[in-house]
Design brief:
Blueprint (H helix, E strand, L loop, with lengths): L10 H54 L4 E6 L2 E6 L2 E5 L10 E4 L3 E3 L5 E2 L3 E8 L2 E6 L1
Parallel strand pairs: 5-8
Antiparallel strand pairs: 1-7, 2-3, 2-6, 3-4, 7-8
Length: 136
């Protein structure tokens, strides 16, 4: 005679499925944490890239001599913290990431206030060894 076990599942199978679900949830949590870290790093690197790009534009216009000019498009908030120090922050205020700073070597007449607005175009001009930054 055959034992009657239709629709029954052993406790070992239920335990195995439960363990697999728990392992999956742990891996999913780790994945989301890593994704957040990668996004923050990407935001910082984008700001650092823009900071270095602005510093290179200023240095290039300075090295080009009298009458040299260049047009620069800004993607983030840019502040001239002190003489020769640039700080780039996020364009949207709700995102909190690390700000990027860098330096440049030139005499610059800063706009008033000493900030560059995001999503704007600026003209850099070398006038007698002094770099003028004006919004276009």
């Amino acid at each position: 005679m055959k034992p009657y076990n239709h629709g029954q599942i052993s406790i070992e199978v239920m335990y195995s499925v439960g363990v697999m679900v728990i392992v999956f949830m742990i891996l999913l949590g780790i994945s989301f944490t890593r994704r957040g870290e990668v996004t923050k790093l990407e935001d910082y690197l984008n700001k650092r890239n823009e900071c270095l790009r602005i510093a290179n534009f200023i240095t290039g216009v300075n090295n080009g001599g009298q009458g040299t000019s260049a047009t620069l498009y800004i993607y983030h908030n840019v502040s001239f913290v002190t003489d020769k120090v640039i700080q780039v922050t996020e364009a949207e205020e709700e995102i909190t990431t690390i700000d990027a700073t860098c330096t440049y070597i030139a005499n610059v007449t800063l706009p008033t206030p000493p900030t560059l607005q995001p999503l704007s175009t600026y003209l850099l001009e070398n006038k007698e060894g002094i770099i003028l930054i004006t919004k276009q």
